[in-house]
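User: Structure please.
Assistant: Input sequence and predicted structure:
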Amino acid sequence: QRVLTLGFGLLGFMLLVRMLSREEFGIWSLFLVIINMVEIAKLGFLKNPHIKFINSEDPIQKPFINTASLSLNIGVSIVLAIGLCIFATYISPRFFDPELSGMLIFYGVSSVFLSPFYQLQFTQLAEFDFRATFIVTIVRQGFFALSILAVFLYDVKISLIYLAVLQFAAVMPATLVSWWLSKKHMIFSKGIVKSWVMKFFHYGKYTAGTNISASIFRSLDQLLIGAMINSSSVASYNNAIRISNLVEVPALSLAEVMFPKSVQSHQSEGTTKVRTMYEKSVASILCFIMPFTLFVIIFPEPLVIFLSGRAYLDVVPIVRVTMLYSLIVPFNLQFGTVMDSIGLPRINFILITLTALLAGILIYLALPIYGSIGAAYAMLAAYLFNMIVGQMLLSKYVGVKFFNVFKYIPEMYMMAIGMAIGIISSGNKKDNGN
């Protein structure tokens, strides 16, 4: 699913960066940053509590959990939609391009109708139904990317607001397919049980706060560049961020799987198993991303030209800095997974909020002095702060040893080599047998 999302996202990005002017692409990037923050806030409030309760409570409670989750989903969607429309009307025009406001108002109104899609999405994750998630991703991301490809091939001039409409339209067929694949899991009670709503609220307030703070932290650089410099600078900076995001696929994928498994392990085996899962999962992610990260830091130009064209070669120095994030993200991302799974979401929330505040201060100070690359330096410092404090907390609560991660890396490489040899050997035997 993550690879497909990345692939379709890259296709759309490579087309849009060539179809839109630098200013238009900067506005589109800011739009995506803001709506992603809204979506992450909603999912943070609902997804993790839903997964935890489904996997830790008696199965007889499932209908009550589903009903409480859906009712909160609709309520939170309405509240976020109103908040986004207020932001778009009164705040956005003061700091960003006026065209962005119309796009945000459209998304705010239409986002209420996305509630069923997201309900199905985290239900699939709670039930380990990754096949359904995979197929739905093909439908949603494929519809949007191929629609942009058609617009590009037929050389149709498309406005940014119609691009936002097209993005919304892609969710409709995806929701229908998602329902068809996962309706067996959608068992509801006849009424809403208040105690379950309160359980969701008290657990979700921290995971939602954590996700909002994390989203603000990851978006502050682009938001402040847009507010303090201009949309064209956002377009350049976004190109660098897109490249560094390429290596986050293994981290995000493993985090999706690790959270429900970590909940189950903590319920049955305690913190020892969780500690081992953390150390090995971070080691396995680093095995995937280190070779690519080092290659891009040394030779960023070919990748920038391939993805964005020669017009964006000015982002090469920023790419070298942002690629360093990828070596820190696995530690930080899996820290949040562990804290949420052992029932300490408040600690995760406090740390990421402090990190976001630190990042905001550093970016605000660095932008006037160093320009856009100053935001990259500030974010790198904030990532390091988060990692150092996170490792101290992991050591305290689950006994994680930082250097154990690096001890596991050679083991992971040997395991990967052994798997490859096994696949090749079985293929050769099959050919010989034929």
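The mean pLDDT is 83.
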